[in-house]
Amino acid sequence: MSDRGYAVTLIIRASNDHHLPPPLDLPEGITATVDGPEVVLEVPVRAPDATTALGAAEDAALDLMMTLASTFSGYEFVRDARRQVRRTDAVYQSDGPPPPFDVVGGGVTEAGAELYDPDGEARRAGRVLNMHLAAVVTHPPAEDVRRFAGRKAWSARLRNGLRLFHAAQNARDEIVKFALIAAALEVLVDADETSLLERLGAEKRQLLGTRLDALLADFDLTKPERERLRDRLQSTRAKGSFQATRDYLGMHDVEIEDGDLRWWVKQRGRYLHTGTFVDEPERRHRLEHAVSACLTAELDRYAPGASPRES
Asked: What is the Cα–Cα distance from 266 to 284, expressed in whole angstroms?
């Protein structure tokens, strides 16, 4: 299918106290109307269908919001009925049966199309059917209320983990959400920073350092490279963070599938250090549920009637 012309209307709203003043003149034919904390964007797109057009327009808007964030303006999407996709180059099709609807935000059966458009005029004119469907998940809050009642006894470690997990639940970007959840897990684990070399005592540490320097001198390494290797040895923990995380999850009876923990650690490091990420949504979701299980288990310890442990 050849590309069609679309205009996509999107609303973004300031989430902090940095608001853009009008006018906002943007490139690529994008128009922006600033109205207080909200900005109405109209993004021209060429795409094979309305759904693809919406995705491309949201990508452009996200790039704009990330650029604005670099100077402290926090904007996020407003998801309401004002979001619209329309054709800009539709040609009325007078011959033959009405074509199928170009739908965004949902789906429509042939019978549904007849209900929306009984005479077929909207379909012949190339009108986009904009649907605004949203799923809502809910659960009884009794357990949350019980856990909240113990809040004055929460440890700083638990509170910091909850703060990161809360930020993750409000994140719009799935990969940013993953990074925040992984950070929450790291805070909760609170791995022992004791150096492996501290077990040896001062005299043996000095002897090991002397022998290591002699060994490294036999290789074609610069002084800074030798120092980095020496520092790496000295900073090696008595208990690795990988094992500490596994022990923490096990303490809360959280079972993880083979390879998940290694994937979580690897992808978090890749994203934070190189900006790359190889996504596996199922593993992301398992991390989220694992950390949720640990948090609720810890909150239960502080709830009325429980016996809190040191954290």
From this structure: 12
Task: Please tell me what DSSP assigns to residue 153.
Answer: G
Q: Which residue has the tokens 């180059």?
A: 89
The answer to whether 150 touches 299, Cβ cutoff 8 Å, is: yes
pLDDT tens digits, residue range 170-218? 998 899 999 999 999 999 998 776 677 777 777 887 888 888 888 888 8
Q: Where are the alpha helices (DSSP H) in the chain?
A: 50-69, 110-116, 121-124, 142-148, 156-169, 174-189, 202-217, 223-235, 241-251, 260-274, 281-302
CA–CA distance, 147 with 192 (Å, rounded to integer): 27
Q: What is the pLDDT of residue 28?
A: 97
pTM of structure: 0.73
Task: Count other C-beta atoms under 10 Å from residue 175's C-beta.
Answer: 13
Q: In this structure, what token pair is assigned to residue 217?
A: 């001198």
Torsion region of 52: left, alpha or beta (phi above 0 gives left; psi -120 to 50 gives alpha): alpha
Q: List all residues 6 or more positions away from 133 whose beta carbon is below 8 Å from its beta carbon.
A: 105, 106
Rounded to the nearest 10 degrees, the angle between the axes of helix 156-169 and helix 281-302 is: 140
Residue 230's Cβ-count burial label (10 Å; 0-12, 13-18, 19+) is middle
How distant, in Å, are the alpha carbons of 72, 143, 164, 302 from that of 161?
A: 25, 19, 5, 15
**Phi/psi at 54 (5° precision):** -60, -45
